[in-house]
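queue> holo job accepted (6-O-phosphono-alpha-D-fructofuranose)
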Amino acid sequence: MASTARNIEPIFGCSSFMTLQTHMLADEHRFRDANGALSWIISALAISTKTISARLKRARLEDVLGEVGRDNIHGEHQQKLDVIANDVLVQVLRGRDGVAVLGSEEADDLLFVNTRTGDGDRYAVLFDPLDGTSNLDVAGPVGTIFSIFKTEPSNVDCLHPGAQQIAAGYVLYGSSTIFVLTTGAGVHMFVLDPSIGAYIRVEESICVPKFGATYSINEANAAGFPRGYRRYLQQCRDEGFSSRYVGAMVADVHRVLLTGGIFMYPPTQKSPEGKLRLMYEANPMAMIIEQAGGVATTGCERILDLRPTGLHQRVPVILGSPDNVTDLKECLSE
Ligand code: P6P
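queue> job finished
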């Protein structure tokens, strides 16, 4: 008696149940010479960020909030969780064969972990292990940002323009833990299901809305902004925009990715070059926003075209919907 195939209920409300791991295995086929090294690195980022997410949720219970008592290379007070997140990422990533070089916001210099030449591709992984840590003590959102380049161990600086990134993304530790990834073929979003310990794909090929009536900027620095920014902000207020600013780039840019609008960190009196770092904040977020159809610029040039001068170089950052960035650039050019 032939059984009739009954309708199988969608799992997690998704008709095609896909984890981050199965997404990467399927994605590999796009790379002719894929040998799994990139998937193995994304897998390392997955297990690392699951570990970080768990530590964050227990931070106050385990008394790991607050400062370590020393500053990083940027003169910023290192938080205990900055160091914990950095150490988790370094320990897991250095164990993956394809990783040749690591660069972290929390480390002065590049870390060469596997200079063996010969078989297989080699990658540099640059990251901000925990971005927005001033939010930690008040249980606000924070994130991990990563940028992946192909490289040769012999190429000492590993500092390439962002347009050469092979992959980029971030993990937002907020009301849920969200992994957003691009490998150059669109932007895809995964949500951590703690009950099974897996990142489940919930959206593919995300597109930034063409326009959004929300701007995100630290207006406390307005006195030091170039005049065109102040003119644009007044225009937004006159047009009834909402202002949303969390103080964690991952959270503020994630809002732009999903609902449109514009995120800006302009030059300020305190940071004339801008505050955000090119290699592990601006570049990866620029790849994500451009892959989703948005615009990523310093106000003068495309972020992904910049030729880096150092691992911790700072740049002005504008990430947003095409129409919003066009309006801002008109104000900047007046
Ligand atoms: P401010 C966090 O310290 C960070 O690097 C980004 O995540 C965030 O967008 C920015 O700095 C916030 O800086 O000066 O507004 O506190």
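queue> The longest helix spans residues 37-57.
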